[in-house]
Amino acid sequence: MTTQPDLIQALGAKANRLRIHSIRAISEAGSGHPSTCLSAAEIVATLFFRVMRYDPKNPASPVADRFVLSKGHAAPVLYAAWCEAGLYTPEQLLTLRRVDSDLEGHPTPRLPFVDVATGSLGQGLGVGVGLALNSRDLDKTNYRTYVLLGDGEVAEGAVWEAAQMAGYYKLDNLVAIVDTNRLGQSQATMLQHDLETLAARFAAFGWNTVTVDGHDVGQLLDAFDKAAATPGKPFAIIAKTFKGKGVSFAENKDGWHGKPFKKGEETEKAIAEVTAAGIDEKVALPIPAPTARPAEFAAAKPMEAPAFKPGDEIATREAYGFALVKLGAANPRVVALDADTKNSTYSDKFLKAYPDRFFEGFIAEQNLVSVAAGLAARGRIPFASSFSVFLSRGFDQVRMAGVSGSNIKLCGSHVGVSIGEDGPSQMGLEDLALYRAIPNAVVFYPSDGVSAERAVALAAEHRGFAYIRTSRPKTPILYSNDEPFAIGKAKVLRKSAKDVLTIVSGGVTLVEAIKAADELAKEGIALRIIDLFTVKPIDRETLVANAAETGNRILTVEDHYPEGGIGEAVTAAVADAGIRVARIAVTEVPRSGKPEELIAKYGIDAAAIAKKVKALL
Amino acid sequence: MTTQPDLIQALGAKANRLRIHSIRAISEAGSGHPSTCLSAAEIVATLFFRVMRYDPKNPASPVADRFVLSKGHAAPVLYAAWCEAGLYTPEQLLTLRRVDSDLEGHPTPRLPFVDVATGSLGQGLGVGVGLALNSRDLDKTNYRTYVLLGDGEVAEGAVWEAAQMAGYYKLDNLVAIVDTNRLGQSQATMLQHDLETLAARFAAFGWNTVTVDGHDVGQLLDAFDKAAATPGKPFAIIAKTFKGKGVSFAENKDGWHGKPFKKGEETEKAIAEVTAAGIDEKVALPIPAPTARPAEFAAAKPMEAPAFKPGDEIATREAYGFALVKLGAANPRVVALDADTKNSTYSDKFLKAYPDRFFEGFIAEQNLVSVAAGLAARGRIPFASSFSVFLSRGFDQVRMAGVSGSNIKLCGSHVGVSIGEDGPSQMGLEDLALYRAIPNAVVFYPSDGVSAERAVALAAEHRGFAYIRTSRPKTPILYSNDEPFAIGKAKVLRKSAKDVLTIVSGGVTLVEAIKAADELAKEGIALRIIDLFTVKPIDRETLVANAAETGNRILTVEDHYPEGGIGEAVTAAVADAGIRVARIAVTEVPRSGKPEELIAKYGIDAAAIAKKVKALL
């Protein structure tokens, strides 16, 4: 049995070994953040060599305790821990930040032990909430989740969104450690070493807390023991540390945030000082093995088909709710979340059907996305919904989910001026621009109940980020229940040999386009109509082939601003095919009014479409 | 002298009058949120008819106390207050939500008494911080700022970003009132009527707090008195209220969030109940007049010209810092903010020159944007900077600034893969897509020091939102110091009669395009090169004219994802002119590496451009 003093000595020495690895790797790279690695060394050593249960030979183990490095710029100390655990040689660490190395400047899931990319601060705790919810409420297993934050990043509101959700759900399998090293990038933090105030904030958000000296391994061990032994609340360890700890010329000094030690004398002096503080472990530090059992999932079945009747009218947002229920029956991995809009997005249908797989996220959309990313990291398929405009609050989290390749799905409802009287603050007119810009995203814009249900099924099948754009007004059913849909395949809704122009649209404006075509048909003007279905990837082939049959003319119509939406997507897709594309869209900040008044006022209704068609012919 | 009981009676009656106006207007509109107006009635009555100093005849008065309705869906009770103050007739209130009325579903600055649009929850307190900072530290006047929040919206992290900044800056001229009505849109809030926990949260964030019965005018009067008399900290009034207060069938009941009372019996029953509670004021309620003096600004002078030497190399981010200092000298309205990246964005130069006009916002970008909007609402011209990716955290706040027409300027640095080793989490590759989608935005993408300085000057002159995209690497000076720049005017950098193709670009890829042109010139291939300068508005005329002279061929190159960036902007702009546009951009999630390795790997360097040009010819 290891005596406590020996254990403390060994973990202290381990911390210094992490320091040396970090310094060497950063100096070799010539860029990076050494001082933040030095402040976290004892915390990381204690976690990786005493507290956490994992398998160094299987870094992707699904049953290991989770570690989220929310302060992603301390990546080298994480890589150093895995080196000391046996996954890397010290020489491999020296490939840090090289283009041919997965040891990137900030951690990404290219590494098997990283659940989500970090580096945009303040996102890790929300991911941790997702991981912890999954462990306790879904997998019903026992892995624990540890999130290491910096004190600078707790200024991010997203941290408090995560903290309140962890408190509300009483996630006592979640531990946050705040590496309170006093110094931000450009100056001291707001609270500096006022640990008590920081602890009071976590306490007010529903956490048990303890303040410790973050360089005192004994205090850290006690804190982690207490965290494990204290049920009913998440646990925050507020650790007083010093940036640059152990290196005299950098310790607790401003100006060393993103600055490597110079190769040569400066680096060697730093390493000599750390070495002198002790790097030999007197006793072995065995890594506890995971004890969790893997979650088991029944295989997914095909989702039940839509069941609309001809003449039905339904909002795509409501069809989303129907579909989510069917998807929940077909696929046990599917979970749903909402931000207190579930009676508007219709995700409440899923809540009623599967209360154990629904998480209310309240009005905190950044955290909603991060929690979803945490759930996705453990094999769940989360669908998170709110008004499109409010989801834009979480854009940076979605961007990071894109970097991670996270398998999350968002549904943004209430898009466009067609929501009506609530006015511009509630109208999603930028969402296509936002989500098209995420690499590998699938952006669905269903135009009726059938396609909305199919979009949900296809979103679940797609591996990666998907966005579903739903509308508020009821619109007619356009497709038969057995119509096949696929990602990247547009639908030709109207077609004749006499068509003189192709209209490309989606959602409420597609319905307006059909009305316009009906009117123009009376005047002998035949139009081809294409429902894009997925704005990304876009069905270039269908667009080009149909435009070629209609005088190489396309008109796009959308309840969205002109930038980054359907018009630009279509124009870019067919740019090299000699096709002329005209576009109509909402071109100014709208105002309140009835939906039909607004689509007329902003020039995207049937009359405006008909007028534009005539002008183009 | 009015006795206190009479005052309390009168304010209670006033609150009921506000209730009746709200109910009637919403019932007439057939949509809206009556229950949230009813919970706030005493708070609003006390503020508007006893506490706040303003001039009902001059609702746009710049010296009046400020009121921000952060819970924007309670708009009708705000309009009702202005009706009772004499600005509207009761009949005018009945135009609520009509397309021909400025009384929109949520408040916008179309109304003279509204500083910023609200309706996306959790943004008002940050705006209030900006208003309060302006009063105390810039105008050095005495107006006070009151922000009314809902308890649902305090789940938004942005609220805590604002709370911490108010606490840090000890804004004792700022009062937050939380209308704690227990019920959100779809269910009860997390804390429901646990006022003490909510107060503890504000206290931990640096506020003085008091809890009151929000329907007890006497308690509210005492609370506002205490707020005015307690220096050194911002003041939070946590008011226990009931949603639907005063209407028996709605009070404290779920399911009445966005639901009007039915016209006819239901509405009349509600009004009868409120009327019976008392609507006649026994004493007059004189509105205190503002005592603040208007701020005086020296007239802006032209900004000093750039002063680079031929052969200089400078990063556009650093030129931003130089320019900001010059702009600060030329225009006293200019202020700067940063999110703890000032030594990377170079806004620290402004801090050094004008410490009184710089506000450190710490790592809380949502709030940074909202504070800027508050400052802009009082005539300041705020420039807020951070890494481009981190600013994307505040997209919803920027969107709302767009709805407001706020005169704010953002500078996003460290764009694209050319930042190098820090990796994808730090690379701004979506910013053009985001900010192009803001109506009336100007999106600058300067390519050298001279144009970066001119962009800053032009951003200040533009009335409305502007975004400046700056790069990390040093690049050559391309323009003479006296080169004139204008919004919406591109620059033709290279031109000959033999040009076979026009390249359109900006930033580091423009420099690569010049290198490619130099190489291809050796092979006898002449290229035209256009520096877009503003991506929005785009200079269609220059693009079309030059493309026409180069075989109607354009190649765009950008350090940005393909969607919503330069390529799509150019393609859309020239779509009807018979010009073929090819595009190269970053098409996958990048990784860490040296800048020159990454621009090569992701196909946007000189070699990739030259190869693409040859393929196109």
Keywords:
homodimer; 617 residues; alpha/beta; seven-stranded mixed β-sheet; five-stranded parallel β-sheet; 23 helices; 39% helix
Describe the structure.
Two copies of one chain form a homodimer. The first copy, chain A, has 617 residues and is α/β, with parallel strands linked by helices. In chain A, 39% of the residues lie in helices and 14% in strands. Chain A is built from 23 helices and 19 strands. A seven-stranded mixed β-sheet of chain A has the order 8-7-9-10-12-11-17, sandwiched between helices. In chain A, helix 11 (316-330) packs across helix 18. The longest helix of chain A has 26 residues, at 4-29. The radius of gyration of chain A is 27 Å and the shape is elongated. The model of chain A has no long low-confidence stretch (mean pLDDT 97). At the A-B interface, helix 7, helix 8, helix 12, helix 16 and helix 17 of A face helix 7, helix 8, helix 12, helix 16 and helix 17 of B.
